[in-house]
What we know:
The protein has two domains: 16-64, Homeodomain-like (Arc Repressor Mutant, subunit A); 66-201, Tetracycline Repressor, domain 2 (Orthogonal Bundle). The protein is built from eight helices and no strands. The chain has helices at residues 15-39, 45-52, 56-62, 66-91, 95-117, 124-151, 161-172, 183-194. The protein is globular, with a radius of gyration of 21 Å.
Amino acid sequence: MSTSGQTRPTPGPGPGKRADAVRNQQKLLAAAAEVFVTSGVDAPIREIAARAGVGMGTIYRHFPTRADLVVAVFRHQVEECAEAGPRLLADADSPLAALRQWIDLFIDFLVTKHGLAGTPQPDSSGFAALHTYFLDRLLPVAEHLLDAAVEAGEIRPGIQPYELMRGIGNLCVGADNDPRYDPRRLVALLLQGLAAPPSARG
C-alpha cells in the first residue's frame, strides 16, 4: 500500500520474460511439427513434450485442445516459410538458388500440412480461414522470388505464383503413403522446365 492509500499495480512480465515465453512457445511448436511429420497429428502429447523438453502441462496450458495445437503449428510453419523468402534471396548465390531453397522449405511445410488436413476439424470455418491465411502470406513471397529469378534471366517469364505453388502441392500428394515416391525429384524436374533457355540468359 502506498502512502497515498492506493494500491500500486503489480508489474507485468518484463520484455525479457515475454521474449523467453515467445521463444519457448516457438520451440514447442517446432517440436510438435517434427512429431506430426514422423508420427502423424494423432501422436501422443507426451511425445511432443519430450521432443520439446517441457512437461505435458505446459502444452495443455498453451493449447487446451489438439485442434488448438494443430492450428498453432500450421500458423507457425506458414510464418517460418514466409519469413524465409526474403532472407534466402539476400543470402543465396542467385535468385534461382533462393527459389529452390524456398521451395524445399515449402515442401517440408506441405508434408506436415497434408497430415494436418486429416485431423478432426471441429470448426471447419476456422480451418478454411487458415487456408486463406496460407495464401495471403505465401503467394507474395513466391511472387517476389519468381520475379527476381525472371529479372535475373534464370527462369522464363509468365509463371504465376499460384500455379507454381499449386503444382508443387499436387506433386506432394500421396508422398507419405508411398515410400518409393519422392516428390522432390519431380519438383526438381518442374524447376528445370521453368528455366530460361541459355540464349535468353545472355
